[in-house]
Fold each of these.
Amino acid sequence: MPSETPHLVLVDGSGFIFRAFHALPPMTSPDGVPVNAVYGFTNMLMRLLRDRVGTHLAVIFDAGRQTFRNDIYPQYKAHRPEPPEELRPQFSLIRDATAAFNVASIESPGWEADDLIASYAKDVVEKGGRCTIVSSDKDLMQLIRPGVELLDPMKQKPIREAEVEAKFGVKPEKVVDVQALMGDSTDNVPGVPGIGPKGAAQLVQEYGSLEDILSAAPSMKTSKRKQNLIEYADAARMSYKLVLLADHVPLPQTLEDLSYREPDKDVLGSWLEKMGFFSTIQRMGLGAVAQAKGKTSSPAVSVTSEDADQGQVQLSEAPYGPYETVTTFEALDQWIAAAFKVGIVAVDTETDSLNARQANMVGLSLSTEAGKACYVPFLHEGTLDQPTGHQLDRAEVLQRLEPLFEAESVLKIFQNAKYDLTVFRKAGVKRITPIDDTMLISYAQSAGEHGQGLDELSELHLGHTPIKYDEVTGTGRKRIPFAQVPLERATEYAAEDADVTLRLWQVLRPQLRVRKSLALYEELERPLIQVLTDMEDVGIKVDATELRRMSADFAQRMEEIEGNIHAEVGRSFNVGSPKQLGEILFDEMQLPGGKRTKSGSWGTDSSVLEQLAEQGHELPQKILSWRQLAKLKSTYADALVQQMDQGTERVHTSFQMAVTTTGRLSSNEPNLQNIPIRTEEGGRIRKAFVAAPGCVLVSADYSQIELRLLAHVAKIEPLLEAFRLGQDIHARTASEVFGIPLEGMDALTRRRAKAINFGIIYGISAYGLARQLQISPGEARSYIDAYFARYPGIRDYMERTKEEAKEHGYVLTPFGRRCYVPGIRDKNGARRSYAERQAINAPLQGGAADIIKRAMVRLSHSLPKTDLEAQMLLQVHDELLFEVKEKDAEMLSSFVKKEMEAAAHLDVELKVETGIGSSWADAH
């Protein structure tokens, strides 16, 4: 088309691949290869060819991870995870798709796709043409100028100068200066600490270029920003080189080579047929191929081509119900066929217990589209007044569902999948894949912002209040088992849950990309479902005899302490009664510091008793000792025997995946997260967790992981150096803060430094440190002031983190997890201070949680590939516990240590301490 003004359309292929992969549910080709990203990419190319927006067309790809930027800064993009397993085979298929459409495919080793795009855009403009870049990538916005614009592939809207100014606060030619100052955590571009998007834009608006800003820094008003601009000037200059796109790349193909060419219909049709994209064949008018094969629809999810291009699923306004009660196998088969046709199905179970391992499935519900759901009852009992009528045999239902549950081409969607998978496993269903979990999809992007239960998510995202469990079963003494709920009412409740789950998935799944939580969900939360299900199923062996012996000992000691308490008070009373204890402490003994609760009684929680004990009062200390023994006796010594599976002598804790604000796991029935670690009694409890005959337990514990994360995120050079040299971090801190040589460091000084190190992580106050070290608040304040004077970067980190929390309502872990901080803007000073301490700690505790989750997923893949007879049993905070054949213990210990230390790459190395023993206490 030599007579036309060249209009070059460049598709950011690398960027679109990941968007399509994460936006669309799992799909497979007829030969079982994952193709959801290929499908999304194909539909995008189809749209471009349909609209014919340019005279020249090319798709630009990244050739590899290593580019010239890694020579400038080896850590550039270093923390980016490897592509998901399901995406890797799709890279070559997407290049095949490009060829099938007769479109040029371009990549160049040593250069990023963005550099090629910049070079081609420059080339076509210099030749009098114009360029449209199909991408919404912010890094490409620096290229916008007369003749060059971006086209957002999701919204199908152009991005020009006005849109860039709205995003960055500056014109396109100044975007690089802003990015150099603010850095980019996604690509690991350092920037200048403490300068965010707004601050960077203001500096550029006021001073001009980056060099102008750095030159003016010494004359700026004294502030932390001025100090950082001076201190990190070289980092800013390096960041500028990293974010500036190279527009001088040798062009692998000339502009003439990229002229638009019609695809060969036979070639394209054959390729689409091979992929199984028959609906795409029909939309492109290539129906002869589909007809020849007798195919009429694609195995993909039932979305329109527009939806596929944009990575969105259109929500239906369908009413909630009426729903179908399935009582014949013919009807069940129709639902199964519908699930295969659309490629997605929401699944929910109804049981007779909240404990998944004890629960019996009395029915299940399915939903294949909004407003369309059913309930399949198995074990409803009915009454004389309301008989259930015909129900299906559970074993045969599950047998008919097995092909659906195992089909890679159909996504199974759950709300709290781990519970349902455990229920299905107990009923004999061993494998359900692939799955999505709306609870975890929500949790990955909103931990701490709100609860993750189905009802709350429905009201929040759908504006719909589901039927409550109490509404169908009653409450209190009038509550009936769900198996006795009449089928009509049971269907309304159960099928609605599946319908709501499907609708939530349609809303929440696309938001993962918007909230930058895709990798977190795909690489940590979703894989952990199966990992934790397996761990819960295995359980851990306990020594019932030791537990009973322990319980008797605790009871005897409690009785002795109780006698001493009664003797000191001068009369008997119920030591376990907070009301009676408060009257004795504050009415009779007239001890200071008493405060009444809203009910009017005296408060006697542990903080009150600890304060009184620190003042030298013996009675509160005895009460604390009695309470600790009472808790250990009831929560562990007695409860573990009751919770033990009598056949296997194992207990099976339930891991809670979406409870904490920071991403940490919690557990219940039994709760193994709160066993005291540093007390003699806590050690005794761990002594009761034992290995099976012929096996031992291996404990692997991250060493000082939160301090390492603090050194990493706050860039504290003395701490970084101490970790790199393998020094005693607490002794080094004591030496730095108190000016005492490392050699001959006394234990008391080291203990004080240790208290400060760990206290800082939790935002400890001078009063809190004083209580911990039993010194005056003034002396504690002097210690903290000396600490911050030696490590000013830590204070900067704390202040910066608090400001980020106040601005956004959340803080980020180093791996991108959002940890919401309720109360950060509270007008009440005490609540706000508590929230600020949470904000300071959340990136560290959350970062540690992310790392050990990465390790667990990593080990779930690598451990089965070894010959080691071992299995992962427990995760408790920073520790993993394994059971292994005694002959393999040393090898497992080394293997786990290596895998856990490689789970993440920080500025300091991760260190894992391992131990081997016949009991948890011996191994820890």
Amino acid sequence: MWRGSEDSGLKHEKLLLAINATKDIEKVLVNAMHSRPRWLRLLMTVDARVEKALSFLRPQALSDHRAVLISLGWPPSLSTSNPEKDNCLYIPNPLILMQGEKKEKYSRSFLALCALQHLQAQRDKRKSDFSKYQKGCELLHSANVDKQVCSYSGLWTIDELVSPIAARIEFHFSKWSDEPKFIFALVYKVTRDFLEGVDNVLQPLIDEARLVGYSAKESWASAMVKMLCQYLEREIFPVLARLEVGSDSNREATSSWLHLVDIMISFDKRMQILASSGNTLPGMFAGFEGFSQSLPVMSIFSDHSNWLQIWAGIELKYAGDKLRSELEDERSWTIHIAKQAGLSDVVSSESFLLSTREDHKAPSIAESVVQLAWAMIERCRSLPSASTRIRFVRSSVTIFLYDFFSHLSQRCQEIESTTSIQEDDMLLRVAGSMNVARYLECVMREWSEDLTFLEMSITEDDLRGRQNMDQYLHNCFFRDEIFYLVKLETDYLMEIVSALLLDFDALCWDYIQNRDQWARQGNKYKDKISDEENTTVSPDFIEALDMLKERMRILKMNLNVKYFLDLWRSVAEGLDHFIFNSIPLSQVKFSSHGVDQFKADMSALLTVFRPFCARTEAFFPCTMDALRLLTMKRKDLDYLLKVLSKGEKNINECLHSRGLFHISAGHVEKILWNIKVEATDK
């Protein structure tokens, strides 16, 4: 190669000759790998010899480059007075001060080292490609998830600038182990003070070396962050981890950990702004191989999953402690309605444009849960990779949400322990819990549409090899949590419906069992007032109607608009089925007075639901068809009986022509035989 006594110019020429010769050999190896795959042993032998030569070439080139830096006066002395302030003393930059022969010597050494690094990168890529070829080109996507972060390798030339600075700067770090903010402030100051000089001097050299996509600013900032990460990994985090997981864990250790993470997040934001300052197209090449993306200090958690778990556990405990006091305070579960709509108002389509907690009528506890969960999400956004963010969210936010879901489910289960919902407090308790569930569901749907969560969802599905079959929640990060809430909402909405129907059944038991009332004859001496006009609601039916009306009023005021729509329609459907089967199909005999009474009672029932819909009759289809059949004229009834007795094929058309769309021919025949002749003589 070359001897140490030779002048630098000759050394440089021989170094370039060696690099060019190795490049030629590398081209031959690449061609042979594709055209002569059977020459594997020969290729490996040649490659081993080249590697042996490079193992001597690389250290020597780095040693010569360090000697050039020392001759320039690098590293400079560091000013540590008031590192937090911007008015601290200016540190002279030897890169800017170098002139003439020194500048030329440094430029030659810089370019040679860049050429050597580029050669090494080509060799590594060729070996990687050959390894994939041997494995049949089977490459898991998970191996490339964090490619830019995990495989980050800065420029050797810039690493050589940072390495001697680290030796000096860590002396000051050791004094501030209890005040990490000074450590970060000093790193930021040194990075900022030398940034302009590094950019002005090194960027032209990087461009001359044809390192497309590399930024001197970002490489410099990343190298300084990497140096800081190494110190934190060695001196700071191990101590905090021992304190947090040890038996002597205390509030002070937890506070120190959270404080350090806050500083790291803030530091990364400031460094990102610093590194990207002056870039006309920031981030345009971020997805391309070779682009020098600045390394965040939060990447320390990518390499230490145990520290990530500790941090997630601390965030989870902190959020749980803050929420615990609100969970136990019933005022947090109180539904506050800013404007109570009148019961007579028909629900409009605008009511479904829900966006805020108040729109969903959710208690304040819902907002607390959302804010605490979102605070954890915001803090993990600084993590550099999707897989790391997934691990953090699943270890903190997801557990936090499910803990709250469990508490929510316990509150709703109270309705299962009783067959009555006569107590307003219990009804409001369940309604408030369900409103919370609905609000959280909507919030998580919105979160899942964020680009960060879309990326995390795709990554998580790929890592698990999961194919989502639910297109409605395709690529939804919180799909499992949403499914859980939807099931909870559906189950307990049906519990309320069931409880209402059971209460209604119990209160009108006597009304249903009194079958004689439908066959009773009206007053024969009323000449001017018909039975229909004179009929009032059955006394045994009034209590059930009053209960239903009061329950509906309370639920309309306190239940989410969507829930209430589903609820009253389900209740109407249940009542229609109950009344139709309990009265018209129960083989009771109907007199004309009984028909009028049944009509008056059903009219009163429809009145309860009239505020929610303009055509309430449409939600009682079977009962309304039965009433329509009972009030038909005698000739129409006789015709229907004739058609039914003959079993004609057009029976359905016959029923439809008389407005009977929802009851079968068997139902019609059963009801007809129970109509007393005098009830239908018109």
Amino acid sequence: MPSHSFVAIPVPSAKENPHPTPSLLRAALSRGGSVCFALMLGSSLTGCAVGPDYAGPPRLNLPSHWSTKAASRRDAGTLDRWWLRLRDPLLNRLIEEAVEANPSVAKAKAVVREARATVQQTGAGLFPSVSGTASGTNNKTSSGSASAIADSAPYTLHQGSFDSSWELDLFGGTQRSIEAAVRGEQSAEEDLRDSLVTLIGDVAAYYVEARGYQARIALAERTSVSQRDTEKLTRSKYDAGSGNAVDLAKATAQAASTEANVPTYQAALAADIHRLGILLGRPPNGVAALLAKSAPVPAPRMPLPTGLPADLLMSRPDIASAERKLAQVTAKIGAAEADRYPAVSLTGSVGTSAMRVGDLAKYSSVSWSVGPSVTVPVFDAGKRLATVRIAEAQRDQAFATFHSTLLTALEDVENALVSLAQERVRASKLTEAATNYREAAKLSRSLFETGSASFIDVLDAERSLYSAEDSLIQSKVAAAKDYISLAKALGGGWTDPVDVSRPIIVDTNTGPHLREVQK
């Protein structure tokens, strides 16, 4: 797009003159409008502008570093393809497919195409519009008397004309609209990137949850087998007369209680698999076969580069989108303000008429007209001024949204950092607890078999071991999900170029054709 020069024109306040009039036009020209007019005559792509100029992202007070980390401009590594740090080939495959087939991403791509078409549509306002017409009519004239009607003969008149009009962007209204459209396109592109960040994080989180439930199912089944063995041992002692019915009932109840967890986990696993299928644009059971075989819960080893809080302005697409929307509505104020000023247009028309089609280019009657026109808003009961005030209020709303989005992003990162750090501490303690409970269960069972320990000791040791191992699996899942949440909070996502040019629906037979009757 060619560069543009802008000359600021002082905009009158509502108290000065809420409705520009011819006197305002003269005042505007005397204070700078004459410069604009001269520029317009010198170059049709150069003009003036009214309304506020966007000065870039608002400067807000941001912390110098994260509360859980020392200040560092950039940690080692980048957020590019952060999910590779989870080291799970199937997860990588699912994410690749989700990026291509997810309906929400497809919708975001369509929004980008719409925004780009809007830029093209708005930019056309800088250029003249030309239209051509042609007609052939049968005519007959008379003076109104009976004899004249009898004597007149019909004739055919062929006519052709070209009409053009060009509204000069004297006060930059079209330029401001183009600014708004371009910034809207940029916002749509950031929204697409935000959709990818959310999608990738969701796929990874549901995948981790699914693997966690598979591990918990396997643990419950493995533990219940051990508890059924304890039940058999207790029954043998009871049959031999060295046990009692209370111990046997407790052993049976504990095994049944553990087995009862399996259906609950199976239902939760199915729900996660169904959600993964939907995220990949498949039916709910579309990925069930891929997850039929259990695999370990992904455990990242490398830390994520957190950078500084100020980096979120560039890395978080939702913040970038909110900032572009703020820039967009700022430009709309100028477009609304320009509508309060006079509009200057150049119009022209060339027409020819002849009795025969072949004579249109040589033996014909030719007429033409060309000249400027000026439209001056005199009175509209404050409608145009209200439009400016609406745009200003929308700008304030966009700023508040930007500020809120930034604060929420800071909160997301801080929460994820704290959760991840504390979950790792918890996991280490649970690992220690599970190791010791495993040893205690082994010893208590051996002592019970020899009659050196009571059944209560065995029951308590097995129950505690199962609880510790199940909690450890949940902690591993939570740590992986906190890692994913941190990557999302930092704005990590898809970095490869995304093709948005391909529509979802490709229309055919769009030229002239017989219309089909809709059923």
Amino acid sequence: MSFPHLLEPLDLGFTQLKNRVLMGSMHTGLEEEKGGFEKLAAFYKERALGGVGLIVTGGISPNLRGRLAPNACQLSFPWQVGKHKVVTNAVHEAGGKICMQILHAGRYGYHPFSQAPSKIKSPITPFTPSSMSSRQVKCTIKDYATSASLAQKAGYDGIEVMGSEGYLINQFISSRTNIRDDEWGGTFDNRVRFPLEIVRSIRKKVGDDFIIIFRLSMLDLVDNGSSWDEVVELAKWLEKAGVTIINTGIGWHEARVPTIATSVPRGGFAWVTERLQKEVSIPLVATNRINTPEIAEHILSSGQADMVSMARPFLADADFVNKAAADTPELINTCIGCNQACLDHTFALKRATCLVNPRACYETELNFTPTVNKKRIAVMGAGPAGMAFSIYAASRGHEVVLFEAKPEVGGQFNLARKIPGKEEFNETIRYFKEQMKLNNVELRLNTRLDASVVRDEHFDEVVMSSGVVPRKIDLPGFNDPRVVDYQQVLNGEVTLGESVALIGAGGIGFDMAHYLCEPESTTLQPDKWLKQWGIDKGYSHRGGLMEPQSAEVPRQIYLLQRKSTKMGKGLGKTTGWIHRLVLKKHHVHMKTGVSYQKFDDQGLHISVDGQDETLAVDNVVLCAGQESNRTLLDEMKATGLPVHLIGGVDVAAELDAKRAIRQGAELAIRL
């Protein structure tokens, strides 16, 4: 067995977990959908069948004011228990265990009825909370206990108290957000009274044989956050108060340090859990950017934690644990930490899913049943859309031949994986390759599909997933060899000078700027990454912060945008700020409202707000979007066979692997 520590049972005294894997809390959006709990039950059931030791639900509020949004889910009344039983019954039938997370948003509530310890507005919400009276504090503690008791009646094996990420309990603990002068504020002992009273009240209400997990903020990553001594003190008191397991919380949502994005090193925060190991005797859970059984096994075998929490990896692959147990980790669909279909959806109040697994949260709607009408299908282009369609169609029983003109599969992923912090795209390409072998997809590399092949080999249908080509710009001097496109740069076809202008500030422009200003990815150098972001492993400052290390500036870079809107406005909601901050650290010059005139030996001539200027650059890199590669579309249509377009060849807006993979999956179901 390759992962003995990961698969080792954990004895909690009154119950036993079958392994050391906790499926971390994720809000899916199904909690609020009509009929959503039936879909949620199917979602969790698949993960229980997939071998997870313990599941934790998305956050459920203990009362009305604690909701994250006006329509968010809460558990406060007996009549709400029934829908939760649908979930717990499904998980238990699958042999799993599940805890309900109780989360009070505090000042993070996206509604005008939010409450907090003090009347201090959050920088990430538009509403100023009201300050809770002492009576309201006591009522809220009672609400937590009531919610836990109802969860027990609903069949949950336990609850998780969300005490981190800057939500209400964290707001009480920190003097940053708690400026009260009564028994719930002021001294540290008073500020932590709130979480301790919550745990004591819950334990008294539910008895001894019920799991209580406390999500403890071990690293606030905000100014005036908790000190390490305070974290240790609270952990010890929580153990005495009756907590079964302490789960690690990293960073407040308002922190300007990335904690779960793909650019964060794998297992990059396990060190802080390890620091607490010698201080308490109850099990500790390591979290954040643990996405392979190898990294999880290392964390456990080295004694950094007693369990590992993985949330998004179970969106990517419900069978993660079973595949690890079968010693086939190469078959795991690895979470790439992109946030595009999960957190970005959640913050947009849409149903969460997964870029690399479009079935996530669609288990009752997106299923690949065996076909009764087997077809021979030619697929043109082995990018994300083509590979996804091929494996899903083949899994249904179709005979699929995938043609790729280049010597390797991957399409735009082969470019994306060269960007610092996006190395995880290698895992998706590996997964698709394994699935193609497993599902008997015939792959023909270095082979262009044309109409004669379609006719001669008697295909029934054609799927075009031939991707995109960079958009050219026709301006004076732009035929100069010093004007290149982003693909030429990433493919190593050109060498750039010391000063470069990037035309186009969408996702491609930002990626190209990052690529040019960080020759060696800090994501692959955890200690350097921590210093770059000002994270103090020595924990000598409150919140675990220190002065960030100055970033290298290997060349002068200008990132230019035609629009006058905010630079990077179209980037992901939960990651866009990271990309902007990275470029700022590397002193990239960002200009909006730019008109382009010409390129010559003096450089790039532009106009900004009616003022002409010349950027003395050695090269111009075109990142101004792309066009669909439809060169052979008419030829394919002339065969008389059905022709389907998916991915970039269908819509060539900003590169969108999420849409491409989902299109491939949905087409595979229809054919």
